Amino acid sequence: MADLGATAGDSRTVRSSGKFEPHCRPLSRRLFLFPMPPMREPLVQPDHGNAPSNPPARSSSASAVAVPLLALGLLAAAVWLGSIPSQPQQPPAGPAVQPLPPAKPVDPLPSWNQGPTKQAILAFVAAVTDEAGPDFVPVPERVAVFDHDGTLACERPLLNGLFIVEQVRGLVARDPSLASEEPYATLLSGDLEFMRRLGRRFVNEVAAATLDGVPATVLDADVRAFLASARHPLFDVPLAEVSYTPMKELLDLLGKNGFSVWLCSGSSVHFIRPLAEAWYGIGPDRVIGSRPRGVMVEAPGEDGAESPRLDMVLLPEIELFNDGPQKPVSIAAQVGRRPILAVGNVAGGDLEMLRWSQSSGRLNLQLIVLHDDADREVDYGDQGDSDLEAARRAGWHIVSMASDWNRVFANPLVKEEPSEPADTPPTP
Fold this sequence. Notes:
By secondary structure, the protein is α/β, with parallel strands linked by helices. The chain has 13 helices and 8 strands.
């Protein structure tokens, strides 16, 4: 065969025999697949009764017609066999399959209404996690700090305060003479706002007074038992149900984007640590709070062990009151990094923590929660006018419960009567 790769102008010589030789002979030359026997006269059995002595001769014209007809039939059969495809034909194609529409992106903050605050959060997270962007922040430096009371959960009344009332009941049971003394008498009267009116320092002082010689392990067990059984007096639901769903979504978003999240609260660290682990999945090593003084003492060995063990007991005095200006100091000492995201609440003692975050030198974000939803939670925004003014001057994002959140709690809660009494602003 000729070289099929040769083209016009190709210097290579095309070598050929001069005539085309097919790989097989044409089908028309192979009509008879096997040798045809010679045509013979049919055998005639003699009919001794009726047959004439001389049978008529076979017509030569009939034989001449039969042979071409047979040939034509075989030719038609061969042509038909040759038209059969070598492979089964595919069925006709059905209607074209339409591609599925692209899935809608999942909203990481579904409890937040669309608006400047939500947009600022999402834009901030996107910017600091974009490795190709100018505001990228390495994972170790993505530190976020949150206040707890009034920021992550309802603080009317203070949750730590509810636990302290239970501790006071135990203290009075051991010494009944304290029932007529203040502040124990008022605490046991059911005035839930009493401690808030006197301020967070007072709460910690009362808490310390109930801890004279109490082992830290015993206090931890008491807190966990309280969290598992106590109900919120304003909404009559388990305490865990008064945590804010929008804030849980924010915590989850930050965790999925490489942030280390810390709680920095004015409440007792011994109370907030078990709560943070149970409600938010935040370990005790990432909780900062007020704390009483503790000392190490020898305690009897367990299970009959001869050697005593060391245990920490708590004393009735405050070692650290973690509020206001102390919060950034505590964060610097325990975290060792300046946070790029700080979240607090109006009238919550969080201004210094947010200001310190704002001067990080990197892209940063500050959020301050405004309690202005009297229907779904509590409205006390008018007690934080100075905080609101400071937030506006600094350019922080004010999170309005009424406007920015389409829901506050996981389930709608109904406040119990009587309604919250009017009172004086909390003592700084």
